[in-house]
Amino acid sequence: MVRSLYTAASGMNAQQFNIDTISNNLSNVNTTGFKRNRADFEDLIYQTIRTAGTPATEATLVPVGEQVGHGVKVASTQKIFEQGSPQETGVPTDIAIEGDGFFRVLDYDGTYGYTRDGSFKIDANGQLVTAQGYRVIPEIIMPEDFIQDSLNITQDGRVFVQVPQMDDPIEVGQLELYRFVNPAGLNAVGENMLKETSASGPAIAGIPGQEGMGRTLGRFLETSNVEAVTEMVNMIVAQRAYEMNSKSIQTSDTMLGIANQLKR
User: Burial level of 164, CB count in 10 A (0-12/13-18/19+)?
Assistant: First the structure.
């Protein structure tokens, strides 16, 4: 009977983790390029009382064994890389990815980060950077006297600007996208940035619109792929599961109380 207390407690802990994951999704419903997380669970070790196939008599075997489980634990949290909806912003430096791929940025520690957040800015050096100041790689540097409203990004990642001395726009750089064999293995570090791990595999570079890479859409941003209604339903399910596990603890406690009162 005491086993059921710990089994139900593991269920409450698991649902608490589930609620934490759902809450993080909902809090990022308006975060550009955010990909929702899903909590995966697995059952714990089983106590085997009798193994299936144990001889019952000389001529028969036990067809079904006896096992009792010990609850549940969190197996993993996985990012779901579904496409978010492109939203037109009209801002020249905003870029959305339609399809597979990530932008590469240079972190302050010299390592590379990867992001779907294309809300880029132009710093004092005329360089394309993220809102936190991380440089976009390959570097895109604007001429000093370029006309900002003329900035244009093509679907294959080429960057064009207009300068006063020339009639035609000039090309100032080429954006690249990067994909991974297992993007779910990337490590989220905050600031809309993911880092490469041994589980994700090495980054595979490519030109937008080629070799399976997504297209780049200038003056657009990719919205979060979190669906608020779905997350609210998941939250209700998790809440009810939490309540049912708490009821199991109350029931076990009642049964222990009855056992304690047998001898008066």
Answer: exposed
Q: Which is nearest to 77 in space by CA: 216, 187, 241, 192?
A: 187
- 188 has which bridge partners? 194
| Domain range for 211 | 86-222
Q: Which of 161, 93, 101 is nearest to 131 (CA)?
A: 93
The structure tokens 């050096």 sit at 125
Could you count the other beta carbons within 10 Å of the beta carbon of residue 174?
A: 14
Please say whether the beta carbons of 213 and 102 come within 8 A.
no
**Per the structure, how many domains does the chain have?**
2
Pair 238, 15: CB distance under 8 Å: yes
Given a contact cutoff of 8 angstroms between Cβ atoms, the answer to whether 100 and 212 are in contact is yes
On whether both 112 and 201 belong to a single domain, the answer is yes
Prediction pTM value: 0.90
Quick one: residue 212, left, alpha or beta (phi over 0 = left, psi -120 to 50 = alpha)?
Answer: left
- What number of other Cβ atoms are within 10 A of residue 144's Cβ? 8
- Which tokens go with 27? 């809090």
Per-residue pLDDT tens for 145-171?
898 899 999 999 999 999 988 889 999
| Backbone angles phi and psi of 24, in degrees to 5 | -65, -40
Same domain, 104 and 183: yes
Evaluate whether 203 touches 196 at the Cβ level (below 8 Å): yes
pLDDT in tens, 8-23: 999 999 999 999 999 9
